[in-house]
Amino acid sequence: MQLLHPARTATAHPRTILNTARRKALRLAAVAAVATAAAAAAPAALAEYPERPIQLVLSFPPAGATDVLARAVGQRLSQQLQQPVVVENRPGAGGAIGLAYAAKAAPDGYTLYLAAVSNAAIAAATYSSQPADLARDFVPIAGIGNVPHILVVPATLPVKTVPDLVRYLQGAPGRYNFASQGNGTLSHLESELFRLRTGVDVVHVPYKGSSFALPDLMAGRSAMMFDSIPAALPHVKSGKLRLLAVASERRVGSLPEAPTMAEAGIRDFGVNNLFGLVAPKGTPPAVVQKLAAATRAALAMPDLVQSLEAQGVQLQFTPSDAFARMIGEEMRTWSKVAQAAKVRID
Predict the structure, then answer these.
(1) CB 144 within 8 A of CB 314
(2) Phi/psi of residue 12, each to 5°?
(3) If I label 74, which of 25, 201, 220, 251 is the partner at 20 to 30 A Cα–Cα?
(4) Could you say which DSSP state residue 93 is in?
């Protein structure tokens, strides 16, 4: 008779069970350690920005308003960020050269662009093609203020007021010219707006920035120019240029006697010259926020405010979102002026 025995189930050795449990525990510990390290790495990396010098690109040559503003603000940003801020002048093509250079830079926070917003809006409206777009190819960091332009003429010109200038130019249609900082710049379109509002016939002579235009203006080879206060005012004080009016909507504190264009009798003429900092599209939001905080702190420094206001610069911090809206508004405004003046640059 065959005996039946119950089936045996193999039982794992106690040491094998212990080793398996230990391996699982080690794997879980390793995963947790990696996750903890990754979580800590992001703030650590942010805290380390910036680790090297920052390049601040602008589209105009040295000595103009943008350059003066860039160097003054850049120095204070350097103090806030504890890294050098190096100004890089890349003028030409109505600002397109500097704009394109900055747009193509790595979006890592180490290349910033000091945007002459009004100028960029005009260039977008007047050039048939642009290698970069301020609204599309950048992220706004902060608005930093307004640098109003002034209308100046050679001291030798026999005019003392804006109405005098209008009558003088109307007396010889097509004989006189106006200088500008370049094709498609604010300096250019301000004069085109002046032509629209007064009906004068003057010829445009573009230069590569104020530093090239002002010598010819002072020599009388041009009859008028809209230029920045930091660039033109020293020549007004020296007696080589005569200041007729400010282009902005309100008078400038450092030039209390200078009327606005509206006060001088030119209707619908109020031009602000907006500036701000932007970074290439794709720059991490945390880096943008850190730069915005540094900008706010820099613009609050009393010595910066005092020195730049004396040169006609009106500093004002504008947060990123509001600054983005300002860029859009300038784009729409100058598109309308360019169409009315029939200004196209190929």
Answers:
(1) no
(2) -65, 150
(3) 251
(4) G
Phi, psi of 314 (to 5 degrees): -105, 95
| Spatial distance between the Cα atoms of 19 and 77, rounded to a whole number of angstroms | 58
State pTM to two decimals.
Answer: 0.75
SS (H, E, C) 156-175: CCCCCCHHHHHHHHHCCCCC
3-state SS assignment for residue 74: helix
**Token representation of residue 102:** 């900055």
Q: How confident is the model at residue 95, as a pLDDT?
A: 85
**Mean pLDDT, consecutive 10-residue segments, the chain of 346 residues?**
41 49 51 45 60 96 85 97 97 88 98 95 88 96 95 98 98 96 88 96 92 96 94 94 95 93 94 95 98 98 92 92 96 93 87
Cα 289 to Cα 284: distance, rounded to the nearest angstrom: 9
CA separation for the pair 126, 335 (Å, rounded): 8
Give the DSSP letter string of 77-89. Answer: HHHHHTS-EEEEE
Instruction: Give the C-alpha separation, 44 to 181, whole Å.
Output: 45
For residue 14, whether the previous peptide bond is cis, meaning omega lies within 30 degrees of 0, is: no
273-303 core/surface letters (b: 16 or more CB in 10 A; e: else)? bbbbbbbbeebbeebbebbbebbeebbebee
**CB of 120 within 8 A of CB of 334?**
no
| Location of structure tokens 């979580």 | 39
Phi-psi category of residue 285: left, alpha or beta, with phi > 0 → left and psi -120 to 50 → alpha: alpha
